[in-house]
Design goal:
With about 525 residues, this protein is α/β, with parallel strands linked by helices. The protein contains 16 helices and 19 strands. The chain is globular, with a radius of gyration of 24 Å. The termini are far apart.
């Protein structure tokens, strides 16, 4: 049977309800979200591809205890120490039982894969994160399972026996061999039917019109929230009902409502890999990554390579307005790359400050940015001629005795040669720059949680924006060109920004000078200005 169509009326009602829910704390017309709760959601998250990060037992595969070993590197619990990266959240790629190295073909959602550790290790990691005020979210690939999952085996057995009354008979999406295949979807022959498998023959897709499927996936989510996990990243969120966005949005509204029964402040972000016009409507139900900021042709990379900052700030402001119209409580979630993309250091070499500028552009912005492990040291990796994602998921080079190795199938050989240790020893390294950017963001909370207002400057590529939070305002300015530039703030804002709170640039060229209302930034430099009283 195909996935049945949900009534359009339900979808319309869901969207109306979503439009009226939680508000933006700094909006004078919307007071439904507590300011502390809003600020708590706007964190910088760090994606860890678990098998490539850090190995604790010498088998060459990263694991949960390896992450525990590196907690002080990620966040040592002391914002003033300057010794850790200072992230506020961790996203773990799937840790559930699976036959693959990537674990997106889950065979048991309730068991930690033995190569990564045990449930006790996961519980210890949760405690370690919370001791440092770090949120931990799990990658939850619900759209499909692995073929060896007990659910799928039960589904096959129900069809083999012709048991149409079985709970499992319609658990996965299937067609009769004579049925027409819906446009854009992929079905594979199996037994005496066609089974939907849009990603891989090894990943059959669940039927989300089946009440039992919804019951099971909600139970799994609640299980991990009760364990102490802070939330989830939802893989392939638009594929549950491929080509039917209204049904996807309605499902995610239902699912998030169910999770909030256990944890009202659950953090969730969905992968809707598409342009803003397609992805943004999902914000009525669940926060989504902003894919238009990512990859070589994304907004961040183009701007970091000498583009016009004004175009970026105005685009970001328009995006914010769109989000607020759909759901005033939605979160802006920009990023440069992830485990499915070529590494940013390949198209943003740090020579000349491009990678550092990219970090400034997306980490010093409101919302909840995500950075991919190794980005902070310029780790490289691309699919290359082998056409394998394993090359995008190479081991983290710690520079010590960590035996973690590259995943199976990788053949990338143009690595930077830098390690975490070598960069920690260099005051001007990319890693030290990332540490400082995150510290500046923490020291100026208006950046993360404030209302975004783009400033307009004519005939210059230098640009900036204001962030206002709980009555205080900061301005963030960027010059991503190779020469110093000057702007007059007087014509752009009535707020008097009179203090340079932070300067982020290369050691040789980075500077900021504020003379009256004129701000000059050195090449490839960013600055945070504050409106301080008494001047």
């Amino acid at each position: 049977m195909t996935k049945r169509i949900l009534p359009a009326l339900i979808t319309a009602l869901v969207l109306m309800v979503c439009m009226e829910t939680a508000g933006r704390a700094d909006d004078p017309e919307i007071r439904s979200m507590d300011p502390a709760a809003w600020a708590d959601q706007n964190r910088v998250f760090y994606e860890i591809f678990v098998g490539s990060f850090s190995d604790s037992n010498g088998d060459g595969i990263g694991d949960l205890r390896g992450i525990l070993r590196r907690m002080d590197y990620l966040n040592d619990g002391d914002a003033a120490s300057g010794d850790s990266l200072g992230i506020g959240g961790i996203w773990l790629t799937p840790i559930f039982s699976s036959p693959s190295y990537h674990k997106y073909d889950v065979t048991d959602y309730e068991t930690v894969d033995p190569v990564f550790g045990t449930e006790a290790d996961l519980r210890e990691l949760i405690r370690a994160c919370h001791d440092r005020d770090v949120k931990l979210i799990l990658d939850l690939p619900l759209n499909h399972t692995g073929r060896e999952h007990a659910w799928f085996q039960n589904f096959l057995n129900a069809h083999r026996s012709g048991d149409t009354g079985s709970r499992w008979y319609d658990f996965y999406s299937w067609l009769k061999p004579t049925d027409a295949i819906p446009s854009g979807r992929r079905f594979i022959p199996m037994e005496d039917m066609l089974v939907e498998a849009n990603f891989s023959d090894e990943m059959p897709e669940l039927n989300f019109d089946h009440p039992a499927v919804r019951e099971e996936v909600l139970r799994i989510g609640k299980l991990y929230l009760e364990m102490g996990v802070d939330g989830f990243r939802f893989d392939a969120a638009k594929y549950l009902y491929l080509g039917e966005p209204e049904k996807n949005i309605a499902f995610w509204k239902w699912y998030m409502d169910g999770l909030r029964e256990i944890r009202p402040d659950v953090y969730a972000v969905a992968e809707v890999w598409d342009g803003d016009s397609t992805a943004t409507p999902y914000a009525s139900s669940v926060n989504c990554f902003r894919f238009s900021t990512s990859q070589a042709e994304g907004l961040i990379a183009k701007t970091a390579k000498g583009g016009n900052v004004n175009q970026l700030t105005q685009n970001t402001e328009e995006y914010w307005h769109t989000l607020r119209e759909i759901n005033p409580g939605a979160i802006h979630i920009p990023f440069l790359s992830n485990h499915d993309m070529d590494r940013a250091a390949g198209y943003l070499p740090n020579k000349g400050g491009k990678m550092a500028m990219a970090a400034n552009l997306y980490l010093l912005t409101p919302g909840s940015p995500f950075l991919y492990y190794g980005e902070e040291i310029g780790l490289r990796g691309s699919r290359g001629s082998a056409m394998t994602d394993a090359n995008r998921r190479l081991h983290m080079p710690w520079g010590d005795d960590d035996p973690v190795s590259d995943p199976e199938g990788s053949d990338y050989s143009s690595q930077t040669g830098e390690t975490v240790r070598s960069q920690l020893e260099k005051p001007g390294s990319l890693l030290r720059h990332y540490q400082r950017v995150l510290r500046v963001r923490k020291e100026n909370p208006e950046i993360a949680s404030g209302t975004y207002t783009a400033l307009r400057f004519e005939d210059t590529k230098m640009g900036g924006f204001l962030c206002t939070w709980q009555g205080k305002t900061v301005g963030v300015f960027h010059n991503s060109t190779g020469s110093p530039l000057t702007v007059d703030l007087k014509g752009a804002t009535e707020i008097r920004l009179n203090t340079v709170a932070a300067v982020l640039g290369t050691a040789d060229e980075g500077f900021a000078e504020l003379s009256g209302t004129e701000l000059t930034l050195g090449s490839m430099t960013s600055a945070v200005l504050r409106a301080e009283e008494g001047d």
